């Protein structure tokens, strides 16, 4: 049913949130209509091509986000998206994003961090973040394959000396040896790609304690 | 460190990272002025990395001349802040063009058919637009050109 | 004609250290009056392609001090023209232009200040933050004859950077220099700093 366009104010803050190429369009309800049963319709556009395209799963939806990852997955391209609000027979004008360049703008998520310890060392194994994929059956692609210059900034906090230091690495395994026994160390890792500034997302801080020094433990017995 | 551009037998280094961060400061406001979203000047089919290495130097040389002669020169910045940022980009691309001229002088920047064909396509996309709209669009597409350089 | 009455600033020069560029000039003195100055610049591009265009500097259009931080204006590795004029109310002086164009590749690069510390048996270095232009080449070795010198590229950051695991009882030395991508130049090395690791040397 065609609606009367422009009687409703537009959705606001229409923007792409992109992490590891998972590109979610999100927006806020129109001013003054929070809590009202509003529905939304989304369209997207490939810069340089000819027409706006529908996203069928985001037609007349009540949520305020829409996953456009599949539609915006070509690294070469740049995109726009727009959303309009509908309430009864009234609808808003379209609210549009700026030009979105996923390859340059996507946030690189943190790696998976696995820590193992012994008395005086901590081994850190990093697994590169995974690119968004269309379906679980699809084979995983690491963000490293897309950004060959992906690096990691590893920071380690010694809770006993209250000192933190960092190391920038490109490989996925590193060992910090000669640590203090029976000491809690906390590790935090951030992925980054040299180039245009991007938002970053550090990993969860993980803490692990080095084991008791066995020699002193034996003497105590 | 610096980015090395392999353009056939012409090899130059440039502070691409600095140029890209300079552009990212004005990207949103410049692109917001480009309302003709169904035309793209720098298209995948004319990309630098999709061009045979021997012709890349010449193609880039032509593209930079387009930017220096017709884009930056005719761009009307909305304020001094944007003006300074655009000046930084223009002067940075000028240094690349000067390096390409050295390659040209050393006969390592040949212009083959592919370079000529691709540049003429780019030029026709540019000239199909009203002049000021073309200038704004070309400036807004610097992230595409810089990505081509990144992949060259 | 008001423009000619006020003398133009003289003795323009640029002081540039570690990619911080300051334009200075001799102040124009008019007793009991406050003089303002305006600074403008032109990169090589503007000179070649739009020579009538001058760009007002970021921080000094106008300013009362006889100097101007032009670091945010000089942003490409080309030669820049700079000019200053004085104003007093409606009176303006003629422009005074820097005699020799300035290029940031002539900046003086000083060895970086650094702080060598240890956390347990981990050698750490903290380097002064000189801004986004700078990378650091850090060289470190064990203080003994024939010791191998290791080199690590360190980007500016808030935290100390881990260099090496060290052995108790041994001594280690570190020196660093800066590298500026934009101009492809590096500073001299800092004086080496050596630290002794506590504890007894491990039995061989």
Identify the notable features of this structure and list them briefly:
heterotrimer, A: 221 residues, mainly beta, Immunoglobulin-like, 2 domains, six-stranded mixed sheet, four-stranded antiparallel sheet, elongated, C: 204 residues, six-stranded antiparallel sheet, five-stranded antiparallel sheet, 2 helices
What's the pLDDT, averaged over the residues of chain A? Answer: 91
Q: From the coordinates shown, what is the CATH architecture of the largest domain in chain A?
A: Sandwich
Quaternary status of these chains?
A: heterotrimer
Note the main sheet of chain A: 6 strands, mixed
* Total strands of chain C: 17
CATH topology of the largest domain in chain A: Immunoglobulin-like
DSSP, total strands of chain A: 16
CATH superfamily of the largest domain in chain A: Immunoglobulins
* Outline of chain A: elongated
Quick one: CATH class of the largest domain in chain A? Mainly Beta
Detail the poorly predicted runs of chain C.
none
The helical percent of chain C reads: under 10%
User: What is the typical, i.e. mean, pLDDT of chain C?
Assistant: 92
Compute the number of helices of chain A. Answer: 3
SSE string of chain A: EEEEEEEEEHEEHEEEEEH
Number of contiguous helices of chain C: 2
Question: What is the helix fraction of residues of chain A, given as a range?
Answer: under 10%
């Amino acid at each position: 049913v065609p609606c009367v366009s422009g009687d409703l104010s537009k959705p606001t803050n229409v923007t792409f949130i992109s992490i590891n190429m998972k590109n979610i369009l999100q927006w806020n309800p129109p001013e003054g209509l929070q809590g009202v049963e509003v529905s939304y319709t989304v369209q997207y556009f490939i810069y340089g091509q000819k027409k706006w395209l529908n996203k069928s799963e985001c037609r007349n939806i009540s949520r305020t986000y829409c996953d456009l990852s599949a539609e915006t997955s070509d690294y070469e391209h740049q995109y726009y998206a727009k959303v309009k609000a509908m309430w009864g027979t009234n609808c808003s004008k379209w609210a549009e994003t700026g030009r979105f360049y996923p390859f340059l703008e996507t946030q690189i998520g943190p790696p998976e961090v696995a820590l193992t310890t012994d008395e005086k060392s901590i081994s850190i194994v990093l697994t590169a973040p995974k690119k968004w994929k269309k379906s679980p059956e699809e084979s995983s692609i690491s963000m490293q394959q897309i950004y060959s210059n992906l690096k990691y900034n590893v920071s380690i906090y010694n809770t006993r000396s209250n000192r933190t230091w960092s190391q920038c690495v490109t490989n996925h395994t590193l060992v910090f040896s000669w640590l203090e026994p029976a000491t809690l160390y906390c590790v935090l890792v951030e992925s980054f790609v040299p180039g245009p500034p991007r938002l970053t997302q550090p990993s969860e801080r993980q803490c692990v304690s080095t084991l008791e020094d066995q020699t002193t433990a034996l003497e105590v017995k | 460190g610096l980015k090395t551009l392999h353009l056939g037998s012409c090899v130059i280094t440039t502070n691409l990272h600095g140029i890209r961060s300079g552009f990212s400061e004005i990207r949103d406001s410049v692109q917001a002025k480009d309302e003709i979203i169904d035309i793209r000047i720098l298209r995948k089919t004319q990309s630098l990395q999709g061009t045979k290495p021997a012709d890349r130097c010449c193609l880039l040389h032509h593209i930079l001349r387009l930017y220096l002669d017709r884009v930056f020169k005719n761009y009307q910045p909305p304020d001094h802040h944007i003006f300074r940022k655009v000046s930084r980009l223009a002067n940075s691309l000028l240094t690349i063009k000067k390096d390409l001229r050295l390659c040209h002088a050393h006969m390592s920047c040949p212009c083959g058919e592919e370079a000529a064909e691709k540049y003429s396509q780019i030029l026709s996309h540019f000239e199909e637009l009203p002049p000021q709209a073309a200038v704004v669009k070309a400036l807004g597409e610097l992230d595409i050109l810089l990505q081509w350089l990144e992949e060259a | 004609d008001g423009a000619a009455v006020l003398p133009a600033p003289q003795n323009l020069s640029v002081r540039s250290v570690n990619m911080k560029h300051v334009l200075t000039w001799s102040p124009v003195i008019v007793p009991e009056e406050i003089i303002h100055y305006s600074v403008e610049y032109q990169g090589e591009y503007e000179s070649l392609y739009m020579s009538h265009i001058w760009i007002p500097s970021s921080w000094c259009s106008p300013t009362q001090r006889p100097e101007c931080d032009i670091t945010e204006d000089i942003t490409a590795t080309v030669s820049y023209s700079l000019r200053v004029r004085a104003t007093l109310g409606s009176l303006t002086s003629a422009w005074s232009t820097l005699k020799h164009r300035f290029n940031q590749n002539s900046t003086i690069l000083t060895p970086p200040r650094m702080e060598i510390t240890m956390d347990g048996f981990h050698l750490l270095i903290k380097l002064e933050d000189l801004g986004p232009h700078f990378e650091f080449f850090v060289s470190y070795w064990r203080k003994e004859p024939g010791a191998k010198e290791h080199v690590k590229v360190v980007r500016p950051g808030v935290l100390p950077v881990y260099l090496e695991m060290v052995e108790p009882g041994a001594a280690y030395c570190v020196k660093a220099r800066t590298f500026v991508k934009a101009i492809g130049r590096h500073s001299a090395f800092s004086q080496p700093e050596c630290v002794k690791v506590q504890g007894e040397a491990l039995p061989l």
